[in-house]
Amino acid sequence: METVTFVLFGATGDLAKRKIYPALYNLFLEQKLPKCFHVIGLGRRELSDEVFQAGVEQSVTQFSRRKANDPVSLKSFVHAFRYQALDIGRKEDYTKLLQRIEQRERELNLTPNRMFYLSVGPEFFAAIATNIKESGLGSAAGWKRLLIEKPFGHDLQSARELNRQLSEAFSEQEIFRIDHYLGKPMVQKLGALQQNNPVLDALWTNRYIANVQITANETVGVEERAGYYDRAGAVRDMFQNHMLQLLMMVAIHLPKNSTPEEVRLKKKKVMEDLVPLHKQDIASHVIRGQYAAGTIQGKSVPGYTSEPNISEASLNDTFIAAKLQIDAPFWRGVPFYIRTGKRLKEKSTRIVVEFKEPLKQQASAQEEKPMPNLLVFEMSPHEGITLQLNTRDPQHQGAFKPIHIDFHSNHQDLPEAYENLLYDALLGKPTFFAHWDEVELSWQWVEPILQAFGDQLVPLHPYPAGTYGPAESDALLAKDGYHWWFDSECSSEIQLKGEQYAYHSNH
Ligand code: NAP
To answer: Is any ligand 1 atom within 6 A of the Cβ of residue 46?
Structure first.
């Protein structure tokens, strides 16, 4: 791995403390950082290097998945950190920053490769990129990279404008857009599972697959993000980015050992083939909800419009479900159902692939019907893969019985999304970052939904906190003869009837 100066804007912020320092620390323990790795943290407040290092040590101790119980290695890790006060809008601060970086590069005898991580509000992205360019920070002889995290714009127009401004300072190859769902280990495995298992690869078509369900349910409410969330809603906060990225990742067909470029082109093709929704289709394809007061895990929680800093009259969506179709030979006729929301019954992110039921017609009227085969990829709260098969139960007159083949990793040991993403960014591997084409096509696809929501053309259904969202979300699938898998009654049905064959890894 090449040497690099890691320049962190927002080094005193929450994301840096909870995610970035712990991720870097775990990479350090695994010797996945460059030999001469060093960080320059930036924020408005004045801090000495020592106070900053103590803050980094504190956040690693508190948030790292691996216990920071070796003082020697912890000291050696934080020694790589330096701090400099910088106000994003003050050009002279960038000149001072350049001098500091050049001095460190000389001291450490480093190639001037520079990675700029913008862990600050998106309203600052364009100004920082411009100042990096104008100050000469980005014109050293080494390479430069820019890491930014969503939101990439508020709609298609603002996303294009942001991209135009960024691309005046950085080329597309130099911009690494973080969508942390792409950093989740199970998401990163989806392609490899399909490519390396002919049994999956052969079935990955509309000939065998009945529908695909992508769910990202949260139990938390709006929390401290009222200002941002009430303008964004579930459609901008989750659907346009994370959910469409999951759709791309599950729908692509990749040859073995595909290059990042091939992955990018295949993902782009999925987005291009996504059947656009026209104004008149939206109400029948998209369900919009907002949580009302309810109970989650025995605790009463307020409705969305009673949350602090949310207007009583807010018509913001905290839930969205949609039916999407891909007009491509592999996927024609297979609905992709996507849903995501806040204050739902349980936290879970999963993809369920429901296979067609060739045996359905063979079962006699009296006989219990077999369940469809399901392949379930769990991303959180635990990572796992489950395959639901049918067998006959000799103890019950040979009735059909579902069994589950289960693989669950010991999630304690899995790298966090930010570790995977930072490691790839340090290596310059773009596969699990959002390319501008994907971002633009996602906004383009979502734009009519934003307009329909804005014009109140889609009813806003209230749902009690602690449920699986509005009943209309179930009706969306029921119209096609399907239901969401693993919501209460369905999952208990499986658990009661099913028998589990579990494989647990110990790694
Ligand atoms: P935060 O806690 O409010 O931190 C903001 C950081 O930006 C602080 O270090 C602050 O430094 C710095 N800053 C603000 N204005 C500045 C200015 N004018 N000049 C220089 N520095 C300035 O925010 P955060 O939660 O870390 O979030 C950062 C970004 O990541 C946001 O875009 C957020 O949407 C995104 N994000 C956050 C999370 C998360 O878990 N927190 C998750 C996903 C995405 P001073 O206080 O020293 O001025």
So the answer is: no
